[in-house]
Amino acid sequence: MDALAQVGRLSPYGRMGRPLAERAVEGFPFGGIVVAVGFLVVLAVVIALVVWAVTRRSRTTSGAVPIDTGTRTTPAMDEALRIARERLARGEIDAEQYTTIAEALRS
């Protein structure tokens, strides 16, 4: 019998002598650790991309419909509303006064 036939017959793993997983990583340093870490990194990137895509899509389609009052605002009105919001946040005016100011600016 030739030598190749003897190797195939003596080895429990087949003709090559070692399992495929061992042969696949024999050229890598530290054996399969580098391959395993690389796989985990690729898997983490794929999961991160899926999470990013889902959260981005849910933010743009959250169901919140902007209220269009039919009035156009000018930069001066926007600035006045911003100042009123800041005064409300600081506690200088209450919510009722803010509503009155906002309605007056929009009319």
Written description of the protein model:
By secondary structure, this protein is mainly α. The chain folds into two domains: 3-60, no CATH class; 75-106. It is 65% helix and 0% strand. The protein has five helices and no strands. It has helices at residues 3-10, 20-24, 32-60, 75-90, 95-106. Helix 4 runs antiparallel to helix 5. The termini are far apart. The model has no long low-confidence stretch (mean pLDDT 74).
Rg (C-alpha, Å): 34 Å
Multimeric status of the protein = single chain
- Count of DSSP E strands? 0
Query: What are the segments in which pLDDT stays under 50 over at least 5 consecutive residues?
Result: none
Termini Cα gap: 102 Å
Summed over residues and divided by their number, the pLDDT gives a mean of: 74
DSSP helix count? Answer: 5
Helix content: 55-70%
Biggest sheet features: none
Query: What characteristic shape results from the CA principal axes?
Result: rod-shaped
Class of secondary structure makeup: mainly alpha
Could you tell me the strand content as a percent range?
Answer: under 5%
Query: What is the number of independent domains?
Result: 2
Give the H and E element order.
Answer: HHHHH
